[in-house]
Design brief:
Elements (H helix, E strand, L loop, with lengths): L28 H13 L13 H12 L2 H4 L5 H28 L5 H5 L3 H9 L11 H12 L8 H24 L11 H18 L1 H5 L10 H9 L7 H23 L4 H22 L31 H30 L5 H16 L10 H9 L6 H17 L8 H13 L4 H10 L1 H16 L2 H21 L3 E6 L6 E3 L12 E6 L5 H25 L6 E5 L8 H16 L3 E5 L3 H9 L2 H5 L4 E2 L2 H14 L17
Parallel strand pairs: 3-4, 4-5, 5-6
Antiparallel strand pairs: 1-2, 1-3
Helix pairs in contact: 4-13, 4-16, 4-17, 4-18, 6-15, 6-17, 7-14, 8-14, 8-15, 9-18, 9-19, 9-20, 9-21, 12-13, 12-18, 14-15, 14-16, 19-20, 20-21, 22-23
Length: 658
């Protein structure tokens, strides 16, 4: 059986005993509560840097915590500025056409896309902790705003109210994001798993591409629904209104954009080719329309764009019923999606450059920039992956690249907006489709299928929900499946049989290690989760069934009958009163079978609660061991030297093993 025959020192009714598992000293409730609260909301211990510092120094550190620009600005160099200048101009060339395109996608005036690329980046440059995040509007949030607000207010029939609700939703989104960061509730965003985000983003990208068929085909009337069936019905019911001019122009620019992306991927040093392609498309498209007067032949153009900087919009926020609730709902949903994308993108690039960003500080920064944006005629912004990737590849060093981008957008607002009058909408549709195709990550979906089938179906559920239902339905399905999976893990924890690795004291899962051997007369069971009220009943029944199956197997093989049941509690990090009651019931059930219950490797919380509930006396502390190996050795020793049940703690237990 390997190295399991040990000699134990102690005086326990003729049998030597192993080391005792100690009961940890009790701690005051408030001290325990404070420690648990700290672990929940302050796992990174942000106040550590303030210890042993003078008041003036603490003030400076506090300002630097909320305004990271005060950390890097004093050491900012001209070499850094040159890199940030190049990166900022590069992302501005992408931000201008994307901003106009995404504003149209949200059914908002195109100029708002430029406004939203001016004020929010300046706020983030002061408060954000990521060096690589490039701030701006995103397609998915734009689609969500159009979808959720459009159900209550028509953007075409009541554009003023729709615009005011968009600002109000942005305010609520920013307030919600900042509140999550200040209250250290960032873990809520973690309920959007990687599989959920992949499926949701892929579905949203598909829906956005379908919506662009209106511009690509030159249609004037189009469905407001976002599901696949409604869009296809709208497209093919208007075949007589398709404009070949728009189709040719759109397909040509889409091919150009995809070609530049392909070249940039093949030759990473030419990243700027793909980054400049959208602005190049806008310029070429505008020149083509202007020279050929294509607007008179069915090609729709942007039209007049107001020159000037962002006008204030604080007085336009709508907090009155019945529209406040739809603005609140839209703000919370879009705020969570924007946070998930922005933080994920920031962490990805921080990992590449080997620095750390604080998720809660990022929430505060993103929230504050959206609050400021809602007061200055901007709608929801975050850190889109495409723009941030260009910023990273362009060699940015700090958040100053956002300031450079905002300056370029400011120059455009002051002097260049009339030049966009002849920009064809079909070019904007091509820019959006080209950007969205990159969000359909089929390789990640294949990887999920290969690694974890459940995660794949979470991803698939999110995708199908968005494509065949709506963006909201897809999000609800994805989050519901993810939460259901978490609940199933808690309510149905895994229990596995352990066996001995020959010539060792190691015990491992027998279904994973073919060489692992069972020990005659002993049954070792591993519980792989905390024990709570949600799974206590299941564990009681499952342990009983395991014992029944083991006894039936031994009877059928004519082997040594079962004498000991050893529960490995090493993975049970916590337990509640229902779990304690479950262990007591298992003890009684095992006793009725004429068997002995043994516990191995219980944690401090388990020992403390077993002691306070008096269940420790019921089980017997002499039947609780440090490791599975010691438990098996002791039981095996007793099994071969005396009758089971002869062990009592009448004379105490020594703490030494020979």
């Amino acid at each position: 059986m390997g190295n399991t025959d040990l000699v134990f020192t102690g005086t326990v009714t003729g049998v030597e005993c192993t080391r005792r598992v100690p009961i940890p000293p009790s701690r005051p409730f408030l001290e325990t509560f404070r420690a648990n609260l700290k672990e929940t909301f302050f796992p990174d211990d942000p106040l550590r840097q303030f210890k042993h510092e003078k008041c003036s120094r603490r003030l400076i550190l506090g300002l630097q915590y909320f305004l990271p620009i005060l950390q890097w600005a004093p050491t900012y160099s001209f070499n850094f500025f040159k890199s940030d200048l190049i990166a900022g101009i590069t992302i501005a060339s992408l931000a201008i056409p994307q901003g106009i395109s995404y504003a149209k996608l949200a059914n908002l005036p195109p100029i708002l896309g430029l406004y939203s690329s001016f004020v929010p980046p300046l706020v983030y440059a002061m408060m954000g902790s990521s060096r690589d995040l490039a701030v701006g509007t995103v397609a998915v949030a734009s689609l969500l705003i159009a979808s959720m607000l459009g159900k209550e207010v028509s953007a075409s029939k009541n554009p003023g109210l729709y615009l005011h609700l968009a600002f109000t939703a942005t305010f609520f989104a920013g307030f919600f994001q900042a509140a999550l960061g200040l209250l250290r509730l960032g873990f809520i965003v973690d309920f959007l798993s990687h599989a959920t985000i992949v499926g949701f983003m892929g579905g949203a990208a598909t829906v956005v591409c379908l919506q662009q068929l209106k511009g690509m085909l030159g249609l004037e009337h189009f469905t407001t629904a976002t599901d696949l069936v409604s869009v296809m019905e709208s497209v093919f019911s208007q075949t007589h209104q398709w404009r070949w001019e728009s189709v040719v122009l759109g397909c040509s620019f889409l091919f150009f954009l995809l070609l530049t992306r392909f070249l940039s991927k093949r030759k990473p040093k030419f990243f700027w080719v793909s980054a400049a392609a959208p602005l190049t498309s806008v310029i070429l498209g505008s020149l083509l329309v202007y020279l050929t007067h294509a607007e008179n032949h069915g090609v729709q153009v942007i039209g007049y764009l107001k020159r000037g900087l962002n006008p204030p919009s604080a007085t336009t926020l709508n907090f009155s019923s019945p529209y406040m609730m739809v603005a609140l709902k839209t703000g919370i949903v879009t705020g969570i999606i924007a946070l998930a994308e922005g933080i994920a993108v920031g962490r990805s690039f921080a990992m590449f450059k080997n620095y750390h960003i604080d998720g809660n500080k990022e929430m505060i920064a993103i929230g504050m920039m959206n609050i400021a944006g809602s007061l200055t005629s901007c709608y929801l912004t975050t850190g889109p992956f495409s723009r941030s990737a260009v910023n990273y590849n362009a060699g940015c060093k700090t958040a100053m690249s956002n300031v450079v981008m905002a300056t370029a957008v400011m120059f455009t607002l002051l002097f260049l907006t009339p030049l966009f009058h002849y920009t064809p909408l079909v070019v904007l549709s091509s820019i959006i489709i080209a950007a969205m195709l990159g969000l359909i990550d089929y390789e990640a979906a294949i990887h999920l299928w290969q690694v974890d089938k459940v995660d794949f179906f979470v991803c698939l559920g999110a995708y199908l929900g968005v494509v065949f239902g709506s963006v909201e339905i897809g999000l609800v399905i994805a989050v519901a499946i993810s939460i259901l999976r978490v609940l199933l893990f808690v309510a149905r924890p895994r229990t596995t049989v352990l066996g001995n690795i020959p010539n060792s004291m190691v015990y491992r899962r027998m279904d994973q290690y073919p060489v692992a051997q069972s020990v005659p007369g002993l049954f070792v069971l591993h519980i792989d989760a905390p024990i709570y009220f949600a799974n206590a009943s299941y564990l009681r029944e499952r342990i009983s069934r395991w014992i029944d199956e083991e006894e039936d197997k031994l009877k059928s093989k004519g082997e040594t009958s079962l004498q000991y049941v050893i529960l490995d509690l090493g993975a049970v990090s916590s337990i509640d009163t229902s779990g304690i009651s479950m262990l007591e019931e298992v003890k009684k059930s095992v006793d009725r079978r004429g068997l002995q219950l043994v516990l191995a490797n219980p944690g401090s919380e388990i020992m403390k609660k077993l002691d306070k509930s008096k269940v420790l006396e019921t089980i017997g502390q002499e039947w609780i061991f440090l490791t599975v190996g010691e438990a098996v050795a002791a039981c095996n020793f007793i099994l071969h030297t005396c009758k089971p049940g002869a062990v009592t703690d009448s004379a105490g237990v020594d703490d030494n093993i020979v």
